[in-house]
Amino acid sequence: MNMITNHLPTAELQALDAAHHMHPFSNQKELADRGARVITRASGVTLTDSEGNEILDAMAGLWCVNIGYGRDELADVAARQMRELPYYNTFFMTTHAPVIALSAKLAELAPGDLNHVFYAGSGSEANDTNIRMVRHYWSAKGKPEKKIIISRQNAYHGSTLGGASLGGMIPMHQQGGLPIPDVHHIPQPNWWAEGGDMSPEEFGLARAQELEKAIEELGEDRVAAFIAEPIQGAGGVIVPPETYFPEIQRICDKYDILLIADEVICGFGRTGNWFGSQTVGWKPHIMTIAKGLSSGYAPIGGSIVCDEVAEVVGATEFNHGYTYSGHPVAAAVALENLRILEEENIIGHVRDVAAPYLKKKWESLTDHPLVGEAKIVGMMGSIALTPNKEARAPFAADAGTVGLICRENCFANNLVMRHVGDRMIISPPLVMQPDEIDTLIERATRALDQTYERIKSEGLY
Ligand code: PMP
What we know:
Layout: H1 2-5, H2 10-20, H3 28-34, E1 39-43, E2 46-49, E3 54-57, H4 60-63, H5 72-84, H6 97-109, E4 114-120, H7 123-140, E5 148-152, H8 161-166, H9 170-173, E6 183-186, H10 191-194, H11 200-218, E7 223-228, H12 244-254, E8 258-262, H13 276-280, E9 286-289, E10 301-306, H14 307-314, H15 328-343, H16 346-363, E11 371-377, E12 380-385, H17 401-412, E13 415-416, E14 418-420, E15 423-426, H18 434-457
Helix pairs in contact: 2-3, 5-15, 6-15, 11-12, 16-18, 17-18
Bound molecules: 4'-deoxy-4'-aminopyridoxal-5'-phosphate.
4'-deoxy-4'-aminopyridoxal-5'-phosphate binds next to helix 7.
Cofactor: pyridoxal 5'-phosphate
GO molecular function: pyridoxal phosphate binding; transaminase activity
InterPro entries: Aminotrans_3, Aminotrans_3_PPA_site, PyrdxlP-dep_Trfase, PyrdxlP-dep_Trfase_major, PyrdxlP-dep_Trfase_small
């Protein structure tokens, strides 16, 4: 596709794109009017567009390109695997070497007795698997009434019917009649927006106790599982107060329910450990994985499942699977990605070099008049934009108005930083070096300055 069309002028590419390509999470009309940005290549932490701009990618694509762009080793492995065995399924008592090796490696890397992997093509599909798996588990144990999955408001768990139902995004629920039955959402631990007069510590405890309240109200005998991202990503990089997860763990230990850690963003080094649940001190029975598993070089996701659940689910036929469950090319690419993460000690680089450096710089953004709090864990961070830091006040304009202006200013300064409402978020490649972090902060500061000037001149401040 690249070779076929990259030579066309940008306007022509944009017109073809607008005519035939329906974009995810986009307003197609607005996109057609403005023309999509055409990305032509990428290397390290930098994207190049069809106009020749070099853009610092502080989102690692969609939180996924953990090892950075342009690693030939992954391309070589993919080409080799395509020649040897481009596809075979893992249904009907068959298997192949790449999926065997990847499963064994994941069992080695995952904590505790998370030793079994069920593959999917994406994080959404993996969460759909989880819904069916936990319900099947309880049914197989003679408790078919344990069906309800508790999740959190403003969580993101994917875009399929199941994934979007687990997610707590109201605008997603409003399209397509969601959530599906037996999914329950409790409030999120977002102190900045919802903490009121409580200290972060009190608020963290209170929000964790919402889980206990929900289990008591719904009845332990009806609750199958609780699912959470260790750090909410698409919800705005919401870092919970330190009191939150220990209390969640206490509650989970008390009741007979399964715990699902959605590690789609937090997994594979993003938080400075292999998995985000290790960073927040939480012990799940199932982990959802995708994104950083292959650093986005091939579409692959899955569920890493503990011994007990795998044994119960595996005792009868589990009527579930995808054509691309354990795709050999994706599995080979993922395995090579894990080799690079491990042999190049990229998680050590995050822990010892990149994350401490980024944290210092990121937190210094609170000196800016627009920035209230700055939160960061490992290589995922957010800043809250506000007209009044003391009051943690929202802007008078609709939520997201100022955030969108800031995102546009970031783009204009060749920086990809996203906004969620009026929070600006980053999740850069884990291989980012200190000088690149300096560039990120310089461009972000310039974008914040321009945003500040503009909203003052437009009366939005
Ligand atoms: N879970 C989480 C925590 C995610 O952030 C995402 C994607 N942003 C998903 C699930 C869904 O993954 P995918 O887009 O690969 O279906």
